[in-house]
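Hi all, posting the design record for the shared folder.

TITLE: backbone redesign
STEP: 1 of 1
STRUCTURE INPUT:
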């Protein structure tokens, strides 16, 4: 990568040590190492003295395994392990979107009304399978953690969504549905003194009913109306809550790290995310180029291949020839990765970068997370 294309380097330790940094959001497409990156950042922050909680949205339980925990719950759990004595504090949790939704109901509704909502079929549908619910509840949980004031730093492992739009749009999309015109139409029969829904909506009833049926997954419209009537007077603030969290994400105390591997698809997704974050004026810190394969030896790939071929033809030093072949292949991979990252940098010269060399094996414990943290910090 030429000097004019070389991006600024992300200073991870400066980011984690900054007392003004309260939230770090790791985002990107699936399979690029977001969960591991988030956990490694949290471990390093705790060891550098910050009271940290890492929130994962990944149901695969990889974070719990890497932290040496049997399981994670919807509430922060302190990480205690032999040989792990951070000067700060490390806690971890995994989002349970149904439990988070239930907790919202219990916190904001009276006991009778809460029971009515929790037992409603429409509520049971949207709290587990409505498009965007997971992302909305991730933002709700983030808002709760931030509002508690209990943490110096919150590290968020975002949902493994293929579309960069989902994570940013879901809170607005769900709150729009629950606060918007559709909900007002559902609740309007009761407000209209018992007039029938068909009469109220008139000629547009067919389109309206189709839209509602799609949302509630075939549940009766009366279930939806009953839910709304119980929900409306208690909660009407879904949009307000989503807006609060949206403002939190845009605040100077939040830092977004886009995680990608040096592969075409992952970098295309990362570029899309970078552009979307810029469009939303979100505080992007930079790109984590994960699982890179740098080559430190001065021997070029072409020279290694030529020398290996000469040795093979001469029938001498077969082991050395094999090593040279491996080196040549490694150089080819490194050069390909450099070209891909250079292409990304040309398109986004303002984006800082930190490369994280791949480990020889998967991360499955705190030692592995520490090593990832060191590599993130450039050590």
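Okay, here is what came back for every position:
SEQUENCE:
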């Amino acid at each position: 990568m030429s000097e004019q294309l070389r991006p600024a380097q992300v200073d991870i330790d400066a980011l984690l040590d900054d007392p003004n940094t309260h939230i770090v959001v790791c985002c990107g497409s699936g399979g690029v190492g977001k969960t591991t990156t988030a956990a490694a950042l949290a471990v390093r922050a705790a060891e550098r003295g910050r009271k940290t909680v890492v929130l994962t949205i990944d149901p695969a339980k990889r974070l719990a395994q890497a932290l040496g925990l049997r399981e994670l719950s919807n509430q922060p759990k302190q990480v205690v392990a032999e040989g792990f004595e951070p000067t700060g504090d490390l806690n971890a949790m995994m989002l349970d979107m149904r439990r988070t939704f239930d907790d919202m109901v219990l916190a904001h509704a009276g006991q009778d009304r809460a029971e009515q909502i929790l037992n409603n079929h429409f509520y049971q549908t949207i709290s587990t399978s409505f498009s965007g619910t997971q992302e909305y509840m991730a933002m709700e949980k983030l808002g709760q953690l931030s509002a508690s004031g209990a943490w110096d730093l919150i590290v968020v492992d975002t949902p493994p969504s293929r579309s960069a739009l989902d994570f940013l749009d879901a809170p607005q999309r769900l709150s729009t549905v629950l606060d918007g015109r559709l909900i007002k139409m559902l609740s309007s029969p009761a407000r209209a003194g018992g007039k029938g829904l068909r009469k109220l909506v008139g000629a547009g009833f067919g389109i309206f009913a189709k839209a509602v049926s799609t949302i509630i997954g075939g549940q009766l419209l009366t279930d939806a109306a009953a839910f709304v009537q119980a929900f409306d007077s208690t909660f009407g603030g879904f949009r307000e809550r989503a807006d609060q969290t949206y403002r939190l994400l845009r605040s100077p105390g939040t830092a977004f790290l886009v995680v990608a591997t040096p592969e075409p698809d992952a970098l295309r997704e990362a570029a899309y995310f970078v552009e979307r974050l810029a469009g939303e004026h979100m505080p992007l810190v930079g790109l984590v180029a994960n699982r890179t394969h740098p080559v430190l030896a001065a021997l070029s790939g072409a020279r290694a291949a030529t020398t290996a071929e000469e040795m093979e033809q001469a029938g001498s030093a077969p082991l050395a020839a094999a090593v040279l072949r491996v080196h040549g292949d490694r150089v080819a991979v490194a050069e390909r990765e450099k070209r891909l990252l250079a292409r990304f940098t040309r398109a986004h010269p303002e984006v800082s970068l930190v490369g994280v060399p791949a480990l020889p094996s998967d991360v499955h414990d705190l030692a592995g997370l520490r090593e990832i943290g060191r590599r993130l910090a450039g050590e």
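COMMENT: Residues 3-181+238-294+340-376 form a domain with the Rossmann fold fold (CATH 3.40.50.300).
Let me know if anyone wants the other runs.
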